[in-house]
Amino acid sequence: MHTELPENVSTVVSMLIEAESSGVTGLATRIGVNPATISRWQAGEVRPRPELEGRLRALAAKRLSRSRRAPATEGPALFSAGSDQLDQAFAESLHDVREALHRNGRLSSRHEALDELAKLVFAHFASIESGGPGLGGIAQDGGVADSLRQFVEEQFKLHLPTSVAHEFGADDFRLRLKPTEDRLARDLIQCFTPLSPDRVGRVLHGARDADLLNDTFGRFLADSFTDEKELGQYLTPPEVIRAMTRIGLASLSTEDRSAMLDPVRCRDAGIILDPSCGVGSFLAEAVRQLLVEAETRLDPAGVTAWLSQMTTGVVVGLDKSERMLKLALTGLALFGAPSVNLHLVNSLALGGGDGGVTASFANRARLILTNPPFGAEFAGDDLRGYAVGRLLPKSDRTIASELLFLERYLQWLAPGGVLVAVVPDSVLTNRGLFRAIRSWMAPQVELCSVISLPPVTFGVAGTNTKTSILHLRKRAQPSSDPSRVYFAICNDIGFDVVSRGSQRLKQRRGEGELPQIAAEAVERDGAGIGQVVMLDQRAERWDATFHSGLPTWLQQALAIHSEELLRLSDVADIANDRFDPRRLGDETFRYIEISDVVARDCTVHAKDVPTAEAPSRARKLVRTADVLLSTVRPDRRTIGTVPAHLDRAVCSTGLAVIRPREGVDGVLLARLLQTDFVTLQLLRNNIGIAYPAIDEECLTDVVLPLTRQQAESLVEAAREVDSLRERLSHAEARLLETMTHETQRWSAQA
Fold first, then answer.
1. Residue at 673 is within a domain
2. Which of 112, 204, 618, 720 has the fewest beta carbons closer than 10 A?
3. Rounded distance, CA 88 to CA 467, Å?
4. How far is it, in rounded angstroms, from Cα 673 to Cα 627?
5. Is the C-alpha dihedral spanning 561, 562, 566, 567 positive or negative?
6. Is 660 a domain residue?
7. β-pairing verdict for 627-630 and 603-604
8. Domain count of the fold of the chain
9. What pLDDT band is residue 4 in, cutting at 50, 70 and 90?
């Protein structure tokens, strides 16, 4: 069959791109390469490796064969456009159902409309998959509402997965339709007319079309219900889902991946688990990406058998939200396999019925793909049985849910199993309990990659929480070996988020950087956006901002001059003379806050504050020539030198007090700390989004952009500046004093 394809591989690539709904990016994901590589193949600049060219031609041959079996339609020369037309028809059907439910006006929220839509979609596709007529087979004369309700109920009784049936009954899926609502029932049935059994039956046995419908369902949820907070929390952007799934599947060993693509052996290869599955997007994407490869290896009967085994025994979803689990069931049913392995449980429960279900997956997960809920706090009995609970400092009483999930992941992963999870950056950067848990995990895992996501990533859900993708492998045995880690910062995710009224909407603007970053993470070559670092287990931070935040030119400068590097700790100390101004007998004290430090000329001012009103942050005593550096927003370079007249003033704890050693000029040091060379080093230590800040302890490792000899040569010039500044200050004081005196005298004479 391959001989019927064009000989020129670039022509084959062009046809495959044209047939892909996502163009170059979609084909790159299917083949497992960088989108830029696809573009080079298409342009004829390079030829694919033999094994990759074989996959391209096998995929093209499959689609050519399918297009010849499909009804004639207008479209690309090589493939039928029927798939894309069906995708559009499905999207329109979903939209029409939603609008029909809203026109009825009885449902009080979009969530309720979403519940009913999911029931209808599942019942329609489950009926067709089993050889039935779908919703179109319901009689339209008299009692239509009752007939539609009975049809939906019957489909759930016949096809409700065993796993779900343990927590749900058919009554939980009963359509909320009154016997008198025949008109609404007819409208709902009519919405599914474009999705006829003839058309859908072919889709449910064709990999590309099945994943198209599933993808359409996911996009429909994201686009139609972005203003619902609960749903928004669970909808990870598809750009992130695709990249994470690609990284996770590519991290499987050759043996595991081969077994997972075998209809007979896939159940024994281990499970693909999402313990916070929401609407099932990660599970569906894992099936979608594997399905493309299964098509190139298996005949149609083998693909059908493999798909059944995958959805019933390999992909596993857990969630404590009934609504989300029902949506996950519907989404996976679109692959033509309504029997799926989903469980209504609390994934963090160690005891009771939920604990029994979650314990059954211990050491079985070959791959975990997930975006867990953040921010919930656990304490007391909830921590019983958790090892990380024993790491909790006595001063703390609670542990965030994301930290408990880390321990659960290690319990569920099989030796050699892979985790790809969205985590808040606090997991990777914060001290205290967070750092203790990283140290506890380090011997048990091989850290593979960390990808920093931009704040806009979850903007549709109403949060700018800084997150990253954490990718690791569970070691078979604890080890002290370092990890070879790929770190990357994604600044362009391919969309912006804009507000229109009360809604937050995505505005797509291209592919973004994630496809290339995912390709680099798989290869771990660090040749493009990211870089590879040998990470010692004693490393205090795991975030990409710290490990790959320095531009190439600065890394090279640091490396070239490594023997001559002058660190801040060589010329100054971080002073921490604490003082409570309320102990003073004076009525006022001189207070320096961040706004009193002027970056433009490195000057420091102060204000007189009543001692009784001393702010809680007024706690640091300063000396003449101390350099004050704002630890909040270091990008603003708020740095200045304390003048003699402010000796023993008190400054805010938001300022680091840097005390130059003897022979080191404070003015020169302040200017050196304002250089790009230093600022970029400080920014890699940032923690936080709204008010990014650094810990002043990182300052001791800062490298200055001069050698000691070069710095000494500038001391006299700096002292001259300091002297002139002091003279200017005295001159300004005399001017103001004279002006005040003359103004008062003039007023008195008037």
1. yes
2. 720
3. 33
4. 9
5. positive
6. yes
7. unpaired
8. 2
9. low
Per DSSP, 453 falls in state: P
Q: What pLDDT does residue 73 have?
A: 36
Let me know: does 482 contact 535? Beta carbons within 8 Å.
yes
* pLDDT at position 113 over 80: no
User: Alpha-carbon distance 251 to 271, whole Å?
Assistant: 14
Residue 360, exposed/middle/buried by CB under 10 A (0-12, 13-18, 19+)?
Answer: exposed
Which residue type sits at 51?
Answer: E
Query: For 429-438, how does the pLDDT look when each residue is reduced to its tens digit (9 = 90+)?
Result: 988 899 999 9
Contact 12, 56 (CB under 8 A): yes
Q: What radius of gyration, in Å, describes the C-alpha atoms of the chain?
A: 32
Residue with tokens 């004369």: 141
Supply the pLDDT for residue 229: 45
- For the stretch 499-542, pLDDT in tens is 776 667 778 788 889 999 999 998 876 568 888 989 998 898 99
Domain boundary among 40, 75, 110: 75
**Torsion over CA of 70, 76, 77 and 79, rounded to 10 degrees?**
-40
Residue 86, pLDDT above cutoff 70: no
Coil, helix or strand at residue 726: helix
Report the alpha-carbon distance of residue 664 to residue 132 in Å, rounded.
86
Mapped onto helix, strand or coil, the DSSP state of residue 80 is coil
pLDDT of residue 409: 97
3-state secondary structure 90-147: HHHHHHHHHHHHHHHCCCCCHHHHHHHHHHHHHHHHHHHHCCCCHHHHCCCCCCHHHH
Most confident of 57-61, 387-391, 617-621: 617-621
* Encoded tokens for 404: 């408990």
The domain spanning residue 591 has which CATH number? 3.90.220.20
Q: Is the pLDDT of residue 109 over 80?
A: no
Alpha-carbon gap, residue 645 to 655, rounded angstroms: 19
From 185-194, 440-449, 655-664, the region with the lowest mean pLDDT:
185-194
Across residues 631-645, what is the average pLDDT?
Answer: 94
Residue with tokens 């084959």: 12
Q: Are 374 and 424 in contact (CB under 8 A)?
A: yes
The pLDDT of residue 620 is 95
Q: What domain range is 43 assigned to?
A: 2-75
User: Residue 610: beta bridge partners?
Assistant: 588
Sign of CA dihedral 331, 337, 343, 344: positive
The two structure tokens encoding residue 575: 């002073």
Is residue 500 situated within a structural domain?
no
What CATH number corresponds to the domain at position 29? 1.10.260
Distance CA(688)–CA(174), nearest Å, equals 46
What pLDDT band is residue 730 in, cutting at 50, 70 and 90?
A: confident
For 395, the 3-state DSSP assignment is coil
Class of residue 669 by CB neighbours under 10 A (exposed 0-12, middle 13-18, buried 19+): buried
Distance separating alpha carbons of residues 239 and 242, to the nearest angstrom: 5
Task: Name the more confident of 692 and 703.
Answer: 703
pLDDT grade for 382, boundaries at 50, 70 and 90: confident
3-state secondary structure of 609: strand
Average confidence score pLDDT of the chain:
83
> 353 with 319: CB under 8 angstroms?
no
Burial letters 55-94, b for 16+ CB under 10 A, else e: bbbbbbbbbbebbeebeeeebbebbbebbbebbebbbebb
Which burial class, exposed, middle or buried, applies to 7 when counting CB atoms under 10 A from its CB (0-12, 13-18, 19+)?
exposed
Give strand ranges (E) for 587-679. 588-592, 597-598, 603-604, 607-610, 618-621, 627-630, 639-641, 650-652, 655-660
- Domain-located, residue 511: no
pTM above 0.85, yes or no: no
